[in-house]
Amino acid sequence: MIKTNAIPLGKISLLLAILFWLALLLVDLVRIFGVINNLDSGISEEVTWGLEILFFFFTYFLYRHIFWKSKQVDFVTLLWRGASTGLFAAIAGLLTELIFYALGDSKIGKDPFLQTIFYHLNFAWSSVFLISTALLWKHLILYQKTKKVVKQWQVFELSMLTALFFIFFNHNNFDYSFLFGLVILLVISILLSANLKWIPYLKFKEKWKTLLFLFLILLSATLLFYRILAYGNEERFQINLTDNLFLMALFGFVIVYGLFSFLVTLFNLPTSSVFEQKLTEALNFQKLSQSIQPEENEEQVLDILVDSCIGASFSDGAWIALNPTEQLKIQNPLRSIEPSTLTELTALLPAEFQNWSLTPTNEFQPYSVRLKHPRYKSALLVPLLVNKTLLAQIVLVKEVKEGFNKEMVNIIGTFARQACISVENHRLLNQAISSERYQEELKIAQRVQKALLPLKLDHPNSFDICAYSNTTDEVGGDYYDTYQVDEHKFVFIIGDVSGKGTSAAFHMAQMKGVFQSLIQLGLGPGDFMIKANSALSKCLERNHFITASIFELDTHSQQFRHARAGHIPTLWYSAQTQSAEYIVVDGLGLGIVRNQNYENHVQEIAGNYQPGDFLILLTDGILESRNDVGEQFGYTRLKELVESYPQLPPVELQQAIIDSLHQFVGGDGMIDDDYSLVVVKFKERK
Amino acid sequence: MLQIEKVREGDVLILQLIGEVDASNSVLLDQSIQESLQPEIKVVVIDGKELKYISSAGLGVFMSYVDDFSERGIHFSIFGLIQQVGEVFKILGLDRVIAIVPDKTTAVALRK
Predict the structure, then answer these.
(1) pLDDT for the residue A235
(2) CA of B25: which chain A residue's CA is closest?
(3) A422 and A483 both lie in a single domain
(4) ipTM (interface predicted TM)
(5) Is there a domain that residue A21 lies in?
(6) Which of B53, B56, B93 minimises the CB distance to A587?
(7) Which of A227, A244, A270 is the last residue of a domain?
(8) In this structure, is the dihedral angle defined by the CA atoms of residues B62, B68, B70 and B76, taken in order, positive or negative?
(9) Per the count of CB atoms within 10 A, which of A148, A194, A322, A577 is most buried?
(10) Which distant-in-sequence residues (6+ apart) come within 8 Å of A263 by Cβ?
(11) Which CA distances in Å does A142 have to A150, A250, A252, A261?
């Protein structure tokens, strides 16, 4: 596969750097050859300078590429690389010296070509070391990038670039302009050296290593500097490559920043434990604040909390005391404390420590107490409050008096609060999950209950019937039903179970069963109530009852029979008198008197109806609905409403009642009680 | 909101209900009656003068004590109901099983 997009920048830079160095060497050798043979080689100094600059450039690109690739490498490794490069350059330089010393005054030792080659090699190593170290410093300086630091660095790079070309103006003279440039670059270097933010992040051990490597870098830099100065003083080379502002400034920068780093690291050593401590605290805090997963448990949070508290306060021991009413178990509540010591210490703590029922008036803070114990002298009590109850208390003990300073108490307080929030969130999450499950169950219940109310109401052509039911909770206790006994006989019933919600819904289902089974026996309304009472007495809870109102219509004879068991009286509109009345008939609710005596408490009435008459069966939710001043909808308002709409078909009349009810209640139109409505209207005979 | 004031006068226990009894606080009413039922109590009277509303759940509480009281020979009555609340008792037919009387004197006198 051919990678088209990946240009090997590093390799190209390396190749070009080597090529330009070779060219540089070649040019110098040619020049020496010219001098020896008294020939003018015709190569101007500018060619050498140009090649030198190009060599610097590509070395710079090469190392920039290397650093770009090693972004994730830690400081110590980078410093080691710098130190090893430096050592190599310095040792190579020393070896060269040694070789020439050994050769002494022999012919080879005086050979200008050999000397030039070694000079060039030393120059190359030194340059590579300086450029790579400068880029390493850049990496460290820009560790915590701010706009200001980046600007500073850019100024420095730009100045170095200028210094690179300075040679063309200055022609390698050590004059005031050279000195001036050097001073400016050194000042910038010193300013840059204030950026040492990477040092505190080193661990204690790393700091020692850093010191060693920085020392090696400084040593190498100094050695190389002296060598190059020595070269500069010799007149044997045709062109001095090293007395160059750029190279000198680089030396300055490498040594100044190296020195600053060394000293700051050294002085950071004693306080490094504090910084490490803060870093651990921050990590612990993060651990605590990560909310617990549903499958995990609260004990783990408490475990982390205890360890964090011990770490933050350098305690000599600790334990967790759990509120016995909370369902918590901790594997190992003791930390560096013997069970026997625990008993001793508990006895020494203030009395309120074991008082779990203490209701916190304000948020509990950790508080320290003195201990009169042979070993432990001070303790810090950390109460953990979850949902305004005391979940647990952590006790931290130290072998010194007043061992907990303000900062420790503060950070431990923060840890404790965070842990409590985690536990609370965990509980809320679990609650949310289970309540969601209940919601699902309730939805099923709602569907089942809806199916209990008839979709189709049995009725002949001679009357119209419609029904409506509204529940405030998912399920309710209102009930209506119809049954066709024979061709002319129809029964309809409305009922209301005492109470609300699920229990009412169960009883409503029983009522449906009772109605559907008893009505098939052909019982009249009165007998139906007696039997229903007896049946329900056996299955209703003692404090529950059901009210019902039942009608049996004979469409042939236009007669009705009716019984009421504690239910809201039915409103009867008579077309003849053009007025509505509530049908008054005695009747006790079902399940109130649970014996034969009930027969005496129910009454059955009979009568005739006329075409155009209508019946409104309802539950108390309608009449008891209240407006914003607490007034009930009431009997009269319904009666008057019905009398004003005698011509409406049942569905529209029903809607008119519902609308009127909503209007009466006002506000957002929510009616906070179950209510049901059945409207029956007798048609004109055709 | 429901507030229950208990007064003992010899073997007479008077519970004054202030506010409304609905599905949510009917348990409170039940507990209150349960707690105050010492064996020496012979008369239980509910003072309903300040009772503004009672739901079916509240009525259920009274109903559940009717048999219990008659077995223990306790006279149970309610007095001072406002018209609206009295109507609720009447429609359900509870006035047939619980004595609803106009005032406290009548209520206490029931034992004789």
Answers:
(1) 57
(2) A499
(3) no
(4) 0.93
(5) no
(6) B93
(7) A270
(8) negative
(9) A322
(10) none
(11) 7, 18, 19, 14
Q: Which residues on A lie below 8 Å from B56 (Cβ)?
A: 496-499, 545, 547, 620
- For residue A429, CA distances in Å to A291, A323, A391, A436, A443 come to 10, 22, 18, 10, 21
Work out whether strand A571-574 and strand A614-618 pair parallel, antiparallel, or are unpaired. Answer: antiparallel
Catalogue the long-range contacts made by A468-471 (C-beta closer than 8 Å, 24 or more residues apart): A468/A654, A468/A658, A468/A676, A468/A677, A469/A674, A469/A675, A469/A676, A469/A677, A470/A621, A470/A671, A470/A674, A470/A675, A470/A676, A471/A674
Report the residue of chain B nearest A592, measured CA to CA: B63
Cross-strand bridge partners of residue A494: A480, A549
C-alpha–C-alpha distance, residues A299 and A686, integer Å: 80
Q: Determine the residue of chain B that is closest to A584 in CA distance.
A: B91
Burial A314-345 (b: 16+ CB within 10 A, else e): ebbbbbbbbbeeeebebeebebebeeebbeeb
Q: Which domain holds residue A338?
A: 285-430
A499 in a structural domain:
yes
Q: Of A270, A304, A338, which residue constitutes the final position of a domain?
A: A270
How many residues are present in chain B?
112
Total residue length of chain A: 686
Please identify which residue in the block is written with the tokens 């190359």.
Answer: A124
Amino acid at A577: T
User: What residue spans of A335-482 are helical by DSSP H?
Assistant: 339-348, 406-452
Shortest Cα–Cα distance, B69 to chain A (Å): 14
pLDDT at A236: 59
* Rounded average pLDDT over A555-559: 92
Closest CA to B93 of B74, B68, B66: B66
Architecture of domain B2-109: 2-Layer Sandwich (3.30)
Which residues make beta-bridge pairs with A680?
A: A465, A615
**Is residue B7 a contact partner of residue B46, using CB atoms and an 8 Å limit?**
no
Q: Say which amino acid occupies A195.
A: N
pLDDT digits (tens, 9 = 90+) for A31-70: 888 888 877 767 777 888 889 899 999 999 999 888 888 7
DSSP tally for chain B: helices H, then strands E? 4, 6
Q: Do B30 and A594 touch (CB under 8 A)?
A: no
If one counts the domains in chain A, the total is 3
Reduced to 3 states (helix: H, G, I; strand: E, B; else coil), residue A240 is: coil
Answer whether A594 touches B (CB < 8 Å): yes
Asked whether residue A317 is domain-assigned, the answer is yes
A300 and A230 within one domain: no
Contact residues for A233 (Cβ-Cβ < 8 A; gap 6+)? none
